[in-house]
């Protein structure tokens, strides 16, 4: 297998349209971070983008983070990429950004190009344009925000409409660290995920709980599908169940 080079997220273009936000983040400042891409910027497996980075990879996939505004998509990505929590006031994402990370999955270098979408309603049409090229979707709700949980069904409808039929999908209940503010029980998340046949776990961008696992599980599934090794058996939910940690536990 030949090795490719991983591209860095580059600021190319982005022009968020004006309009009144309807999400929880309405009225908040908007942030546009370095990895902003063109509408047609797509990464295909085994086809690297032009790169100045020296990190090599074997296969590449596009993963999208979706869900209501303020559920913690940007924080989850920053935690995964940089191992840090974005403390301070909430700055809502404008349009769509991406960050790259190369993971070593059983000896195979898997590059994830992770696209962080804006949850605000006014950017929804921008997000729709990207679904088609996504290999995996991480759909987030916030365990301290019932509306974000109630909106999951609508997000799933949207995903079925715009994403590929065989897209790898995982439901994440984020902010699991916020025990005092929790309004959505873990069992409710589990029930919903079961109903829709989607793997599920709770995460915390603040503590790091299950963050690495969420991305690793998706990378393993994508690598498994891509390589189609008949000797290798991989079941996403089984892997997640085995590896995931509960709230209050020790490891991220
Ligand atoms: N307690 C706690 N707070 C979190 C966690 N993740 C994010 N937050 C907070 O939730 C707020 C929103 O986080 P973001 O990551 O910016 O939310 P987002 O989903 O990217 O929002 P949009 O960009 O508007 O779609 C911020 O104030 C974060 O500090 C978490 O795991 N635990
Ligand atoms: Mg964001």
TrEMBL record:
EC nos: 3.6.5.2
Cofactor(s) needed for function: Mg(2+)
Residue span of region Disordered: 1-32
PROSITE patterns: RAB (PS51419), RAS (PS51421), RHO (PS51420)
Annotated GO biological process: protein transport
Gene Ontology molecular functions: G protein activity; GTP binding; metal ion binding
Keywords, sorted A to Z: GTP-binding, Hydrolase, Lipoprotein, Magnesium, Metal-binding, Nucleotide-binding, Prenylation, Protein transport, Transport
Record field: catalytic activity: GTP + H2O = GDP + phosphate + H(+)
Iron-sulfur among keywords: no
SUPFAM superfamilies documented for this protein: P-loop containing nucleoside triphosphate hydrolases (SSF52540)
EC class (word): hydrolase
Keyword match Transport: yes
Lineage: superkingdom: Eukaryota
Family from the record: Belongs to the small GTPase superfamily. Rab family.
NCBIfam families referenced in this protein's UniProt entry, alphabetically: small_GTP
Protein name: small monomeric GTPase
């Amino acid at each position: 297998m030949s090795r490719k080079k991983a591209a860095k997220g580059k600021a190319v273009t982005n022009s968020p349209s004006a309009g009144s936000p309807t999400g929880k983040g309405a009225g908040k400042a908007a942030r546009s971070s370095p990895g902003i891409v063109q509408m047609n910027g797509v990464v295909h497996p085994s086809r690297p983008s032009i790169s100045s980075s020296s990190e090599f990879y074997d296969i590449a996939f596009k993963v999208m983070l979706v869900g209501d505004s303020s559920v913690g998509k940007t924080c989850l990505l920053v935690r995964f990429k940089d191992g840090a929590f974005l403390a301070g006031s909430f700055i809502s994402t404008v349009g769509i950004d991406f960050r790259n990370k190369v993971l070593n999955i059983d000896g195979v270098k898997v590059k994830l190009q992770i696209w962080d979408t804006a949850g605000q309603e006014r950017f929804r049409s921008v997000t729709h344009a990207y679904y088609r090229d996504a290999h995996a979707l991480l759909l987030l709700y916030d365990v301290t925000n019932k509306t974000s949980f109630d909106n999951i069904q609508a997000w799933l409808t949207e995903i079925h409409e715009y994403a590929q039929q065989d897209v790898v999908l995982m439901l994440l209940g984020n902010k699991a660290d916020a025990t005092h503010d929790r309004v959505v029980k873990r069992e409710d998340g589990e029930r919903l995920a079961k109903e829709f046949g989607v793997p599920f776990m709770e995460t915390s961008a603040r503590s790091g709980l299950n963050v690495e696992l969420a991305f690793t599980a998706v990378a393993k599934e994508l690598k498994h599908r891509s390589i189609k090794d008949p000797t290798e058996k991989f079941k996403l939910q089984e892997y997640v169940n085995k590896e995931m940690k509960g709230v209050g536990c020790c490891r991220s």
